[in-house]
Amino acid sequence: MGTAASLQDRMIEALQSVIDPELGIDLVNLGLIYGMSLTDGVATVTMTLTTVGCPISQVLENMIGTALEKLPEIDEVKIDIVWEPVWSPSKMSRYARVALGYHMG
């Protein structure tokens, strides 16, 4: 169990290096990563985007692949973009809300 948890932690750490070019905050703190799994060296990242038809989705997919493939356990990365649940600023971490000056009532 320890190995799986540490791999999950390292995957999250790798994804924290992927910065949304428009917002300047990483995908984890933006709350865009909904889940991750690894099967036979293939990492699947379930995520959403801040907007449908996000013009930088391909850029983000490439950045995610590059970040995760640095981990020795990962040979290939698949991105599963979902629109449910819909992303909203409430999914951001406190850090992201403060950094973006987003105040929630």
From TrEMBL:
Q: Would you kindly state one Gene Ontology biological process term found in this protein's UniProt entry?
A: methylation
The question of whether Transferase is a record keyword is answered with: yes
What the entry lists under Pfam families is as follows: FeS_assembly_P
The cross-references to SUPFAM superfamilies, in alphabetical order and at most eight, read: Fe-S cluster assembly (FSCA) domain-like
Q: Which residues form the MIP18 family-like domain?
A: 12-79
Output the superkingdom of the source species. Answer: Bacteria
The alphabetized UniProt keywords are: Methyltransferase, Transferase
Which molecular function terms from Gene Ontology are attached? methyltransferase activity
Matching PANTHER family, A to Z? Answer: FE-S PROTEIN MATURATION AUXILIARY FACTOR YITW
Q: Please state what the protein is called.
A: DNA methyltransferase
